[in-house]
């Protein structure tokens, strides 16, 4: 960066004198120009070093002050006064005071120096620096091309970028996973992860704006200053580059380094695109394999083992199947004002990676795959024991806890232990039944073991028979008919009385009515049915009837 301080070391300005505005000595200079008209603000572009003799405003202090204010407003670098003593005899103290206050440097050039003697050396220096910057950028670009064409990985690019600009670097993808880092304090990684997510969300929310406005975010974290640079290509976001630019508030990132980061972001975008395409191919292969595995579209176990190995899965010592399935995905999509596809994308890009972390933390040999709105997990164990069920329940509860954090209702089903690969289709059927029946009996966001369903599986079959519907109609028809004729809620009250073991206070709270009203309705139910349904054997009959009603729904 070329500054006013640097300009005072070049050409005739070496003999110049800084008379005010020393706070602006580090103002950057991008060009040199002449200004004689104080109202010519449309020509102020920023970072100009202006030269003037104040010829048009020699005796107008107000206009001189206005010029200094406009230079500050439009971020001009500074002002060189030429021919001092020939035209302008002296600078008013008000002008000098304003210059000091705003940090707009005023330099008095030697009296007999022509404008050209100042302008030409400065422009030569600027051109020289721009040429060197271009050479530097071309060199960096060549290095980046070698990395990409040489098939190097993202980590290699992170190391190269860190070494080039001599800064700590971390890269996060759109799933907010730290892909690679170098020279970043370990204690900062988690807080950087959270801030990277915020910066990406800010970028996503501003897609309709100028893309350049979305690139930079600077944050001070743990006493260090970090720059967050969005990785963008064709208005698509691929992640964030995080740069440790300073410690203790000292800014040390040059314009040249920023140019390198910008070039590197393009290289990162290319690498992420390649990585994404590879992952998409792997996803297709894994989805197809899962579909064939749970339907057993194989002739023998050997084919299964080989095909699993080809996609990086080892099916040896896998003895338990877990499924995590979104509850009412269509209803959730509507509530979130999203399409089914949007919710699935959220599951894949935001939720699934977090579940992968949980599963791999439990045991790195566990297998996990995604199939539409369902996460399929095969639990690894060197020996088969009941301990495996305990591990599965613990993992299932962690997934449920995660579902609250990601605001996505998920139910988890666990199969019985299996011993051979060809038993996986049966285990898959067990888990899907566990989730389907368990949701009706226990509700959503639960961990459900197939082995704990007991007779519910048989009752579920009975619930869908015509015979059961006829029995239910004959048992409950009197209450339904009474409610319909009198616009009452005896049937609903009856259900809650059975569900809450006749605790009338709980039923009253559930129905938002007085406790005495519940007692009255209870007596009416007994009176209409002609016997006491809250005593056995009648009570058991009705409890089974209402349970079957749940299973039908």
Question: Major sheet: size, sense and barrel closure?
Answer: 5 strands, mixed
Work out the number of β strands.
15
The CATH architecture of the largest domain is: 2-Layer Sandwich
| Number of continuous helical runs | 18
**Basic shape:** elongated
State the assembly state of the protein chains: single chain
Instruction: Give the averaged pLDDT, no decimals.
Output: 85
Overall description:
The structure is a single chain. The protein has about 550 residues and is of the alpha/beta class. It has helices at about 5, 60-75, 95-100, 115-150, 155-165, 190-205, 255-295, 300-310, 330-335, 340-360, 385-405, 425-440, 455-465, 465-485, 490-500, 505-510, 515-530, 540-550; strands at about 15-20, 30-35, 50, 80, 105-110, 170-175, 180, 215-220, 225-235, 235-245, 320-325, 365-370, 375-380, 410-415, 445-450. The strands form three sheets. Strands 1-5-4-3-2 form a five-stranded mixed beta sheet. A five-stranded antiparallel beta sheet has the order 7-6-10-9-8, with helices on both faces. Strands 12-13-11-14-15 form a five-stranded mixed beta sheet. Strand 14, helix 12 (about 425-440) and strand 15 (about 445-450) form a beta-alpha-beta unit. The radius of gyration is 37 Å and the shape is elongated. The two termini are about 70 Å apart. The model is unreliable at about 205-215 (pLDDT under 50).
Q: Short summary of the structure?
A:
The protein has 553 residues and is of the alpha/beta class. It contains 18 helices and 15 strands.
